[in-house]
Amino acid sequence: MSFDSPWRWTDGQLAGFKEGLGDVQAEYQIFQMDIKHNNSVEAKEQKGAEARALIEHWRPDLVYTSDDAALSYVARHYAGQSLPFVFSGVNQALADHGVAGASNVTGVLEQEHFQASVKLLQAIAPNVRRLAVITDEGAHWGPVIERIRLAMPQLADTRLVAVDRVPSFAAFQQKVKAYDGMADGVVYLGIFGLSDGADSNVPYQQVQRWVVENSRLPEISFWIDRVAHGVLASVTVSERQQGLAAGRLARAILVDGRSPAQLPVKPTVIGHPAISLARARQLNINVSSSLLLSSEVVTEFEWDRKTP
Q1: What domains, with CATH codes, occur in the chain?
Q2: pTM for this structure?
Q3: Where does residue 51 rank: exposed (0-12), middle (13-18), buried (19+ CB within 10 A)?
Q4: pLDDT tens digits, residue range 257-277?
């Protein structure tokens, strides 16, 4: 797994994978690269080497990887070999990961539900017409930005006024403050790789809380944990659907005897609408009951939740 646990995105993909695999009596060895904290090239290479050492020692029948880092730093070293790999949660092109055309690799692409998320935001806040997009400098956000640009003509009376890729939390703060007056809403992509100006990245929870406390612009992102941390609206990429589709591919390989090369790589298409009622209240936005009834509703910010 590229990321760590506990985290809904990681845990949900793995749970979906097991569900998709079905009644296969499988044993699991789980390795977490934790690239939120190990995000330098050197750290990723080290974690990739550790994962490959586990594979060589345990000799599994199939390897399941989640998200881009595991594909780049683990799976690419086995491209074209006999050991089958199934991935999910991948944003970048397979060629960028060195596995394009590999006969032993298949999986599930993660493609954001951008148009649906914008339409949900506009149903909540009809005045949103000018969008700013901001992200850290992670390489996998390039294709996402390109898909957003290509999707804009399908959104009537809506335009991009800024697309910013920033290296640090300080630069992020400066840009977000500057959006007030030039944009009506913000699209938040990567917030894991924002440097604190020293040797570490600012935790994404801290980044998101700063946004809630310092920006009055309604926003979207594409993952349910962001809504828990104050993003107003999202038609999220379902972690369960990502893992479920990957698990079904793994079952086709292990049970039906199919080759990964026979199983096409595709994105999941089912999104999951979610609304932060806590953020809506803070922004003095009244959300219709019909939208609330058709969405997952988060009633409080993650940092306000009372632990048992």
Answers
A1: 8-111+239-267 (3.40.50.2300), 114-237+271-304 (3.40.50.2300)
A2: 0.80
A3: buried
A4: 999 999 999 999 889 999 999
